[in-house]
Design brief:
By secondary structure, the chain is mostly beta strands. The protein has no helices and eight strands. The chain has strands at 5-9, 23-27, 33-34, 38-42, 45-49, 57-65, 74-77, 82-84. A hairpin with a 2-residue loop joins strand 4 and strand 5 (45-49). 14% of the residues are buried.
């Protein structure tokens, strides 16, 4: 739901939002929206608010980050599409 809260758990999740390549991105190929509001941003958990401008329908969630002081952008995609209402 737009404006709702999502929690992702795992490892190596922490992002550095000042680097515009990094973050949580929601949408489809070519129409991804970057998340701007994080309630928690830690290596093992990300809690964030779904932006209001995310397209409705089936979307994918991607986490793009770099290791601390790293230069290689890592991209992880949640394996199942989600439906945004």
């Amino acid at each position: 739901k737009r404006g709702g809260t999502v929690e992702i758990t795992g490892s190596d999740l922490k992002i550095y939002p000042e680097d515009l390549e990094q973050g949580v991105f929601i949408g489809n190929q070519g129409s991804e929206v970057r998340v701007t509001t994080y309630m928690m941003n830690k290596p093992s958990i990300l809690i964030f608010q779904v932006p209001q401008n995310v397209p409705g329908g089936e979307v994918y969630v991607k986490v793009k980050n770099k290791a601390s002081k790293g230069t290689i952008l890592r991209i992880g995609t949640f394996g199942t599409s989600l439906t945004v209402i």
